[in-house]
């Protein structure tokens, strides 16, 4: 099996999980989506857990790159927060939830190695958000009463929830309203 096939398996499995959940897809679904036989999948991913660990690692790596790009392209905290929200917006456009958000809803049934990967993804996001919020506080661009550690969790939970609600209601405007409300609350009060 070639590296391209392995990459295709990771890409298709990621999409399946984002749409159907970890327990909602099988190697048979993946084999059909990639148009290969199930035994070929087992060549690179002997178990579904191995595949799950690989897709979470790849997704986290891509997200880390997007976070770095957002920080490089936007010097101001509000710009960075808007860029962060845009990462979630892409999933709404493709009708796919955040991979780790979907997996978090299944934490109780996930194998331990997969649980660790999901936690690593969220911790990466929380650290990045704390840095952005700290910067906004230090530069007086965000509300002076913000506590970065606590607010990072609020931002992440708001975007995860808003994405899920927008997908459930098939209404992207739900996400936009949540982002606007969140950013209004974080900004320095006028006057």
Task: Walk me through this protein's architecture.
By secondary structure, the protein is an all-alpha fold. The protein has one domain (47-186): Tetracycline Repressor, domain 2 (Orthogonal Bundle), CATH 1.10.357. It has nine helices and no strands. Helix 1 packs across helix 2 (27-34), helix 4 packs across helix 5 and helix 5 (77-94) runs parallel beside helix 8 (148-169). The radius of gyration is 18 Å and the shape is elongated.
Question: Quick recap of the structure?
Answer:
By secondary structure, the chain is mainly α.
The chain-level structural class is mainly alpha
How many alpha or pi helices?
9
CATH topology: Tetracycline Repressor, domain 2
The low-confidence runs, each spanning 5 or more residues with pLDDT under 50, are: none
| Order of H and E elements | HHHHHHHHH
Helix content: over 70%
Radius of gyration: 18 Å
CATH superfamily: Tetracycline Repressor, domain 2
Named at the architecture level, the CATH assignment is Orthogonal Bundle
Q: Write down the oligomeric state.
A: single chain
Question: What is the strand tally?
Answer: 0
User: The biggest beta sheet, please?
Assistant: none
% residues in beta strands: under 5%
Give the N-to-C terminal Cα separation. Answer: 63 Å
């Amino acid at each position: 099996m070639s590296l391209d096939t392995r990459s295709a398996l990771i890409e298709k499995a990621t999409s399946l999980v984002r749409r159907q959940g970890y327990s909602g897809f099988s190697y048979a679904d993946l084999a059909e989506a990639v148009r290969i036989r199930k035994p070929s999948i087992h060549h690179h991913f002997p178990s579904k857990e191995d595949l799950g660990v690989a897709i979470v690692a790849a997704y986290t790596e891509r997200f880390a790159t997007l976070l770095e790009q957002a920080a490089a392209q936007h010097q101001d905290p509000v710009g960075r927060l808007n860029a962060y929200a845009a990462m979630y917006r892409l999933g709404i456009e493709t009708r796919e939830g955040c991979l780790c958000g979907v997996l978090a809803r299944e934490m109780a049934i996930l194998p331990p190695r997969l649980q660790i990967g999901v936690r690593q993804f969220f911790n990466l996001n929380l650290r990045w958000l704390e840095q952005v919020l700290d910067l906004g506080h230090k530069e007086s661009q965000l509300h002076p009463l913000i506590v970065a550690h606590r607010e990072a969790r609020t931002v992440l939970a708001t975007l995860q929830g808003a994405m899920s609600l927008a997908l459930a209601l098939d209404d992207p405007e739900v996400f936009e309203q949540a982002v606007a409300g969140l950013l209004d609350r974080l900004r320095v009060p006028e006057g």
